[in-house]
Here is the input.
Amino acid sequence: MFGLDFGLSLLLLFCIAFVCVFEFINGFHDTANAVATVIYTNTLKPQVAVVYSAILNAIGVFLGGIAVAVGIINMLPVETLISQNTLQSLGMVGAILITAIFWNFGTWYLGIPASSTHTLVGSILGCGIAYSLLPGTGEAAVNWKKAGEVGLSLLISPLIGFLLAVTVMGVLRWTVSNRRAIFQAPEKDASPPFWIRAILIATCGMVSYSHGSNDGQKGIGLMMLVLIGIIPAQFALSDRFTDTDIRNRIEKAVSVYDEIEQKQASIDSPAMAIVMQKLKPEFDRLKEIAAEHAAGNASLDRFAVRRQMLLANSELNRWLGKSDEAIPELAPLKVAVNSFREATDYAPFWVIVLIALSIGIGTMVGWKRIVVTVGEKIGKTHLTYAQGASAELVAASTIGLSTQFGLPVSTTQVLSSGIAGAMFASGGLANLQKSTIYKIALAWVLTFPVCLTMSGTLYLIFRAILG
Here is the structure.
């Protein structure tokens, strides 16, 4: 398979299967976030709700793009993504997957709504930090800038979910004339009024789609880590681009670099001189690769191209991203380097299909444990129509916005905090079950450090074993 020997082919299949298992567990772990409200308001029967949610989850994976997937990949530094040591890459991917699956399954078994996103981010950063402890790596082993962006989104999203749900509940109280119809608990086995039912079904669908478009991309990102880590030559660049297409882009980028280099002497910028000097080895190597291919002496080394462009992009971002050290003369070079993003930031169609099926099938399995917690144990009173719609509307909009910005966000934390906010708006702190809130908060606090420690430890063990 892919030119690998039998042993590595078997390990590759195991890693692909583990990614699918992660997304499968993610599906049934997070199903409650979408279906709890429609089930507890008698809007949909449980069996219908989970199938409806599964379909929209899968559609969300297909239509959600790959911005979040790229964000997941980029939490690891360039240096760890361009190593061709297959066994060490395998150890890193294995540590991430085992940790993420263990924590997700464990919290699901205990019926605690925990964050799959926290789990994955903690696992990835744990490996990055463990790698940084090895001789000769240092801070380069962790992409702290990207980690900070992701961490901030995970930190503030529950607070946003809580406050927005309180706000939406307040708006509904002031704007809906027949407030009794939506602020009362559903009668046993009685369906809600048609217009309320339509809203609840729509918000359930929005959360399901948003979950697929955000959490599904995490699986895509994991799968690309597997493929790039174990078989970099085949998956370094998208096969939508021929070798000639890539060579043409290389030649254009090199031409821009040469023009800037010629002008450099007339520009008094020590920072620019430093960047150009650091970029010189990368562009010299790109010239060699393009020349060899143009002469017909060798096929294009696509992994080497990916390596050089990622390093060049990383170096440019390191300087152009600092407002006090920005170098406007390098902007054209940044544009030329970014033209490779289409080739480096991608996912094969079969990967998207596999993840969509995994999360979709998982959504229809094992949903009841978390549904009971979300529907019955966050608030002391039965979930009302207004509370359910408010929480899901807030969750769908927050997750959708995060997906557009390429930031992974916790569906579980946003929805749970949204329901807590809706319950709070209806009765203050007295309307919240403190024991459940405590368990959810404890899982939220512990997930990151536990997963970080576990994955980092596993990676160091695997690295010692694999060599």
Remarks:
- The two ends are 23 Å apart (CA to CA).
- Residues 194-230 form the longest helix (37 residues).
- The chain has two domains: 6-234+348-466, 241-344.
